[in-house]
Design goal:
With 221 residues, this protein is mainly alpha-helical. The two termini are 26 Å apart. The mean pLDDT is 82.
Amino acid sequence: MTSDLSQLGVLLFVSALVAILTRRLRQPYTVGLVLAGIGLYFLHVRMQLHLSKDLIFSVFLPPLVFEAALCISWREFKKDLPVVALLATLGVMLAAAVTAGGMHYALNWDWGSAAVFGVLIAATDPVSVIATFKEAGVTGRLRLLIESESLLNDGTAAVAFVATLSVLAGERHDVVSILGTLLLTIGAGALIGAVIGVGFMLLAGRTTDHLVEITLTTLAA
């Protein structure tokens, strides 16, 4: 445990130095982090931090998604919802198909492995792109489309991934059942999010303590 905390302290120190350097050089912070990571690799600096799936999906990812959803203009989101929905569904499947085809024909992967890999990475999360947009002060429809699509594409990718694995395991699925699972995933996610959001908003509205509000917001995420 002490070793993990020490290594985490080293990483935080390096990230702070990168932040200072990139600000002086007027370069994007995310680019500096990538270059620093490459540099640590070539310097043979090896960290033994244990990053589990639960830690990433339950601790790191929720606040990022929560913050992105909180800052999106609801009026603009509703206006561009048809385009966003198209990108997050057919766009994700098209990206998965192109990736799978590339892995099959370029690297001679079998279609099963190529399909699983395609749907696994189809739902890209443009955190670094959005961070760069924010630093550069980019606003408008392009940023809205990229950020909104990244929030909705995970449902499509999750359903496609499970369906692909099921088909490869010999189970039979038709288009109706897959679409039903997709709608259930999206609908249940929206419903659960609404219930949790309203509940924590009612609690946060009963206090003016900013620390309590931050705590409740983190728990909601």
